[in-house]
Amino acid sequence: xxxxxxxxxxxxxxxxxxxxxxxxxxxxxxxxxxxxxxxxxxxxxxxxxxxxxxxxxxxxxxxxxxxxxxxxxxxxxxxxxxxxxxxxxxxxxxxxxxxxxxxxxxxxxxxxxxxxxxxxxxxxxxxxxxxxxxxxxxxxxxxxxxxxxxxxxxxxxxxxxxxxxxxxxxxxxxxxxxxxxxxxxxxxxxxxxxxxxxxxxxxxxxxxxxxxxxxxxxxxxxxxxxxxxxxxxxxxxxxxxxxxxxxxxxxxxxxxxxxxxxxxxxxxxxxxxxxxxxxxxxxxxxxxxxxxxxxxxxxxxxxxxxxxxxxxxxxxxxxxxxxxxxxxxxxxxxxxxxxxxxxxxxxxxxxxxxxxxxxxxxxxxxxxxxxxxxxxxxxxxxxxxxxxxxxxxxxxxxxxxxxxxxxxxxxxxxxxxxxxxxxxxxxxxxxxxxxxxxxxxxxxxxxxxxxxxxxxxxxxxxxxxx
Length: 466
Description:
17 helices, Beta-Lactamase, DNA binding, about 55% helix, alpha+beta, elongated, five-stranded antiparallel β-sheet, 4 domains, transferase, kinase
């Protein structure tokens, strides 16, 4: 046995019992034998202690492995909130090396919005024994936030303040809770919802379903929703419906259902198949909306459309009749206009013949026999005017409407201007001064809107007669 394997009986608490005062003296051989026996006992005790030490070391290693690789983050804080211990799970969750995590302040891991809450909780835990649980928002090394549940235990003694923390990432649980709240709110929306198992037995309905159908939840749960069938659709309709759900995963369309009171009503329905991780159908979710009001509105619109179509047909018939009447009237008018044109032409021809046979010859004879130049001019003017009247007979011209704006004297002046007579001759014929003729010419230009002096009055009047 080596020196390292020997155990000091004074320090280990195991030794040879001192001899009593009454013990007889032993011989050297006996003492040597006793020492040999005690040596064997010490070696056995030393071996037991070595085995026990190995067991303690192995137990400590197992504890450290369990501590470091536990699924929960474990930390220890001192009275100042500094991290004195942390397992590897905690370092991995926070994405911080353990050596950098130790001796750092725990509040650095808390988001600014929860700083005050953490300090209040930490102060309370230091002052009270027992376990305390809080939920805080923390962040990792890259500042990505996550929800954490912290279980605190005050393990302080008279000399040291130690706060043990168990930190759990509850982000997924929070998201699940939020999703469940949203799902619960969506489940109680205005649309009617029924959830069945894979065998199509109802598991749950919402309030809208009960309100629209008239059934109470206890009348529906555990029952196949066949009670909603109205009898309007044939069996083949439902067969094709469920074939579509099996093939596509959902079906959507219009269907007629029946309320508890027997009333048949239309709905717009969607049936969705819910599958598990293996792809097997586990549930069916049916949602529908009562479209009775929509159908009534459609009926009103169809009735209105039918009435309008009837009115259109009737209006078309009336229009065709009116069109025929208008065509007949137009034809009659065309005939009348042709007769009128013929009569007008005949009248014009008769007038021309009459004028040429009974008027113009006499005027020509008067001009030849009359030696008075003044009267000769008047006869010439009269003859010219008569010729213009005959020429324009039955043909409306702008000259007539233009002359209606002028006074009688201005009409005479305008007529002679149109014939090309000079101002002095016009003045002599009308027995007025040339200045007065000039004034009449200005008045004529003004009344006819000839503000532009570059426009010749005679040319303008000739243009009106064309």
